[in-house]
Amino acid sequence: MTERKVTKDVIVNDCIKLYPNTIGVFTKFNIDSCCGGAVSIEEAAARDGADLEAMLAEINEKA
Length: 63
Description:
Layout: H1 12-18, H2 23-28, H3 41-48, H4 52-62
C-alpha cells in the first residue's frame, strides 16, 4: 500500500500551496477553497458534502 502524502488533517489552502495540481480535485468535489480553505480537508468535506475517501485518493494521485 502506498503511503499518502496528504491526509484528512491537512488544511485545504496548505495542500493547494504545496501541491497546486490538487486545485482541480477540490473544484471537482465542490470544496470552497477560496473563502473556506482555512479548514482541514476532513472539515471541508463534511461542510461541503464531499466523499472524503474518494477526494483524498484523487488528491494523492495529483500530489
